[in-house]
Amino acid sequence: MKKRIGWFDGRQLENQEKILPLIYNLRFDHLLIKPEMISEIKAPHKMKLVVDTDKKPDLAKLPKETIIFSSQMDYLRKAGEKGYKTACYRKIEDQETMDSAWKDGSLVDYLVVEINGDTNIPLELLVAKLENKQTELLKIVNNVEDAEIAFGAIESGCDGAVLQSNDVQEIIKFDQSISKSELGKLELHKGEVVDVQHVGMGHRSCIDTTDLLKKNEGMIVGSTANGGLLVSSETHYLPYMELRPFRVNAGAVHSYVWAPNEMTAYMTELKSGAKVLCVDTEGKTREVTVGRVKTEIRPLLKIEVEVNGIRLNTIVQDDWHIRIFGSNGEPRNASTIKKGDEMLAYLSSGARHVGIKIDEQLQEK
Predict the structure, then answer these.
(1) 184: which of 19, 34, 285, 321 fits an S-S bond (Cβ 3.0–4.6 Å)?
(2) From the centroid of its chain, how far is CA 299?
């Protein structure tokens, strides 16, 4: 998933004193303004100003790091020749305006479109047309739902969205939506297997997500807040059944599974719509949505590892088709794991209270 670009349209702000400080502290990286607003704006260094203008005198007054926003291609060409980055605005109303948009858009740094009507087909066509171009495509939106649809247009989605809103809650939700695309990273370690036990029958849960997981992805599952093992997605060969690339056959119902924002959830807490972390063998993470949690009674296997002097354990279904990642990133069949093997493990500092990491002394065995 590529990083989403978040612009905020400040041209028609009703409550500038309240909203702009909020915008400055969120993930918006561009602010669209009118030329006369420049002297009033005290934006942080991380934020670039996009100025809506097509008047030649304005170019001489604007700093070179300013992005020029206009619907006039002649003006944008001149701005480009003077070293400015340029953003072309187009309102898409029919086939003719869509064709004009992608042709002009391929000549500038950014194409910002406003689509008339409820269909996103024009946006999908623009994504396809500009796929091999350097132009970044953004859609003007009024709410998070519209932004999410734009980000998902023909899978890759547009590069970003320009939010037009005076609603503080909508602005905050938009910021949270942008954060979903920011891939995180967990530090994974080699853990030596020190004990393997068949622990009898118990309830275990499969976590079915609304995403298709890759062969090197899974979830961190563990019995204690200290951490856990990287349990693989069901994306590897099974002799008697079809693959379930949306699934992680995760573990016993008491287990923690790692979630976004340094949170954990018990297997029993997860339900449709919940968010969990998908983690790959390099430690890169992304947020995925739970579609279903499937809990059944199965024979269980406890795998205990030692990492930097700390012991962790993960209890999974006791079966060959359950895969857990070894230290080199290879999927290991759970029923073949033995003492001395090295597995990929995650160490988490601190204790947990209702899934939140806290600093207190806690022992879990």
Answers:
(1) 285
(2) 35
Cα separation, 309 vs 362, whole angstroms: 16
Six-digit token string for 4: 């989403």
In the block, which residue shows the tokens 């132009």? 135
Which two tokens mark 338?
């033995």
Report whether 264 contacts 225 (CB < 8 A): yes
Q: Give the tokens for residue 343.
A: 């597995």
Q: Is 339 exposed, middle or buried (0-12, 13-18, 19+ CB in 10 A)?
A: exposed
- Claim: this prediction has a pTM higher than 0.70: no
Q: Which amino acid is at 121?
A: I
**CB neighbourhood size of 311 (10 A):** 15
**β-strands 275-280, 263-266 pairing:** unpaired
Give the model confidence (pLDDT) of 57-115 as tens digits: 678 788 889 999 999 999 999 999 999 999 999 999 999 998 999 999 999 999 999 99
- Closest of 6, 45, 50, 354 to residue 176, by C-alpha: 6
Strand-pair category, 275-280 with 217-224: antiparallel
